[in-house]
Specification:
The chain is built from 24 helices and no strands. It is mostly helical and 456 residues long. The chain has a domain of 124 residues. InterPro entries: ARM_FBXO47, F-box-like_dom_sf, F-box_dom, FBXO47.
Length: 456
């Protein structure tokens, strides 16, 4: 009877011995079996892997990045170092709640460190396909989302005062710079799925505004700090913003745009949903939205038509409820001449003369309040008048314009005469601005008329 593994025959290896041999084979450096790869290591081929890692600990991240370009064999050794616990502890600095790195880094900021780390990862994965790059960045044992909690959407307890998402954003920006759109699509889909953002965005765009305030803040910070803020080229920023918005219907796009770029509290970061509804706001509250609209309207955003952007602006003006007309007018002025004219012209073409007239009056008022040149408003009105197909339509618009001035003056005068004055009441100041706005607007029209008559 032959002896099995459970017998006392010492010539038969036990299960434990076989497992030990398998583990030792798994730990063997693959470069050790390839003489050509070993020769490519140069002087480092005589060093055990552990000693090589100790040498790397004395090099800066920039120096390691340069070393990665010496040979493919060196690059493989560096990838092993990055994946090793000692390497990941050294490279994945996590002091995200302090302005500067700990001593020994000569005051280099965390952001600069992660830029250098992104360049190192880029060079180590330069010859790999996109799928390989993504595996190197996310799916190895040193997976950033698993090891660094502040890189997660919900990982940090104090996201407003944390540099984690910014560091992750600059790392990804350096890593993916120069990739073609198909590869960047894969990166976006990977991040979107990894963070489960589709379900979280669905929650905030379908819920009552402000009912999920903390989730709104986290989505805002993740989208801006990881995906949008670090691109110097407008075409890159437009690409990533398009990826965020395009999967959703127009109503959800407007809601999501407001969450990402709308006004937020400086204290807790919560999105201020009532700011456009309750009272006229200032330019700073609308700058982010205006810049995003200009980005989508520009030639860099090839997937958006002018009608798409105008529809988005129209839908944005009722998020979460209908805005004050003055805030609509201020957003249009900040969005630039082309968007402003296209928006006004669309109302002219669709026969909405009364609404167009009221909006024009508010644009005149904003020009007066925010110290824009009033001749801009006159030239914009003149340009819009050319859109009307018949003289009757043009004259009807001009009549509606003067009626809008008269009705607004009467409404503001009644508010002043009603005597409801307190610290928050600005009715008299609004009346003062509107009277001056009307006077300056008509003065510019008279100047224009006199110049045209004298030239003829």
């Amino acid at each position: 009877m032959s002896s099995g593994c459970g017998s006392s025959d010492t010539s038969c290896p036990s299960h434990k011995q076989r497992r030990g041999r398998r583990r030792s084979r798994a730990r063997r450096d693959p470069l050790d079996t390839d003489p050509r790869a070993l020769s490519a290591l140069g002087p480092f081929q005589t060093l055990p892997l552990e000693i090589f890692h100790m040498v790397l600990n004395y090099l800066s991240v920039k120096d390691i990045s340069l070393l990665s370009m010496v040979s493919k064999a060196i690059s493989q050794r560096l990838t092993q170092y990055i994946s090793a616990p000692s390497g990941s502890r050294r490279l994945l600095l996590q002091d995200f709640h302090a302005l500067e790195l700990p001593g020994g880094m000569e005051g280099t900021s965390l952001l600069e460190h992660y830029k250098s780390l992104g360049l190192l990862l880029k060079r180590c994965t330069l010859l790999l396909p996109t799928r390989g790059n993504l595996w190197s960045v996310e799916m190895n044992p040193w997976c950033l989302h698993l090891q660094v909690s502040c890189f997660k959407l919900n990982g940090c307890t104090s996201p407003l005062h944390c540099l984690g998402l910014k560091c992750y954003g600059v790392l990804l920006q350096i890593l993916t710079a120069g990739w073609d759109e198909l590869e960047c699509h894969r990166v976006f889909n990977f991040l979107w799925e990894l963070s489960n953002l589709a379900r979280k965005v669905q929650t905030v765009v379908s819920s009552k505004a402000g009912s999920a305030r903390k989730l709104e803040v986290r989505i805002r910070l993740f989208c801006r700090r990881v995906l949008l803020n670090h691109w110097s080229q407008r075409s890159d920023a437009a690409f990533w913003l398009t990826r965020i918005l395009k999967p959703w219907p127009i109503v959800s796009q407007a809601r999501l745009l407001y969450i990402i770029f709308g006004p937020a509290s400086s204290l807790d970061g919560y999105v201020v949903w009532q700011k456009m509804i309750e009272r006229p706001t200032d330019e700073t509250s609308l700058t982010g939205l205006a810049e995003a609209i200009k980005l989508l309207y520009g030639t860099e955003a090839r997937e958006w038509t002018a009608d798409d952007v105008i529809s988005l602006v129209d839908e944005l003006s009722v998020v979460p409820q209908e805005w004050l007309m003055e805030n609509n007018a201020r957003l249009l002025l900040l969005s630039g001449n082309n968007i402003c004219f296209t928006f006004l012209a669309s109302k002219a073409v669709n026969g909405r003369a009364v609404e167009l007239a009221r909006l024009t009056v508010y644009m005149v008022l904003v020009c007066e309040k925010d110290l824009y040149c009033m001749d801009w408003a006159v030239r914009m009105m003149q340009k819009v008048c050319k859109v009307f197909s018949t003289p009757w339509e043009r004259n009807n618009f001009l009549k509606c314009l003067e009626n809008a001035f008269a009705h607004m003056l009467m409404d503001m005068l009644q508010a002043v005469l009603a005597g409801r004055h307190d610290e928050e009441d600005s009715s008299f100041l609004n009346l003062f601005h509107l009277v001056n706005a009307q006077a300056n607007f008509h003065k510019e029209i008279l100047y224009m008329a006199m110049r045209s008559s004298s030239s003829s």
